[in-house]
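Exam prep: given the inputs below (a chain plus iron/sulfur cluster), describe the expected output before reading on.
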Amino acid sequence: MAGIYIHIPFCNSKCAYCGFYSIPSQKRKAEFLEALKQEMVSRKDYLHGEAVETIYFGGGTPSILKVKEIENLLGLIQEYYSVEANAEITLEANPDTLSMEYLQGLRAIGINRLSIGIQSFFDDDLRYLSRRHDAGHARQCIQLAKDAGFDNISIDLIYGLPTSNADQWSRNLDLFFELEIPHLSAYALTLEPNSILTKQIEMGKVLPINEEDAVRDYEVLCRRAAENGYLHYEISNFCKPRKHSRHNSSYWFCIPYAGFGPSAHSFDGTSRQWNVASLERYGESEREALSPEQIYDEYVMLRLRTLWGIDLKYMKREMGERFSDYCERQAEPLIAEGRLSRTREFLYLNDEQMLFADGVAEALFY
Ligand code: SF4
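Solution:
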């Protein structure tokens, strides 16, 4: 089992809060696509012929590409990798790039899952984030995607916005539930170093963010998602039964994946490598072989973010008693403090504890 990630580093403009590697110009698109194809071919043995179960076009704005360009990339992947017949093929899309013709084109070439960057159904939030679409467009494009035949749709929403409040956030969620979208990724607004928003806040040009708003909204999110039949399967991800993101789940289950494009990361089971986050320096990458301690830390960090939690039996079998005993010992005070929960074989975080996953993981690190 394996996955493929392709990073498309172009956007129509730069959103104020963005921390992803992307540039607001498509001048170098043709040159990039050629280099991307070369990378895919030259690293064809990275996954050792493993069956590819998921392909994910992320960015940036992958929906900036023409259907034909995406089709060519998929064709190349089919040619050089062993793609499963029922592979999940996701494309991240922004509302301002979607039309019926485009969506039908995506369906025709085999894209079977869409992840749409909605962020909010309210204009004041969207303006604060400097998104290109408005609230009306957000709703319309979801309907368009459904009419084009997409039934596996995810949207992104952002909470903890200073332009919002508990009531508005709850109404955002009402719209999500009304539209019967099977998957939600919801993220707290964070200040990325060097983002436009960080600078705007420092200069006092826009409202600052307040971490307590995010905690409040997260509680509303967890409660309302459960009431509406959504499974909270990862700290930021909620789904209807069997509609979880197979691609992202493979990250949490430590399944190998190859990442192509600037800033993309790859993992082969024992080492990580990542491409430099620069179009100019595309082709340069760094690699790190993971020590047993790093593999343990990574497992703890990734699995604590999920519904499944840490499997102590798996840990003992795959990493040895040294690590499973250590993990159990470190967990004891956290369980006593109510920061971590336990069944016989699993250590996990319940809904309210999940927002603090990183702090708990740190306490368990080797
Ligand atoms: S669309 Fe996404 S990747 Fe592009 S600038 Fe906005 S947040 Fe960043």
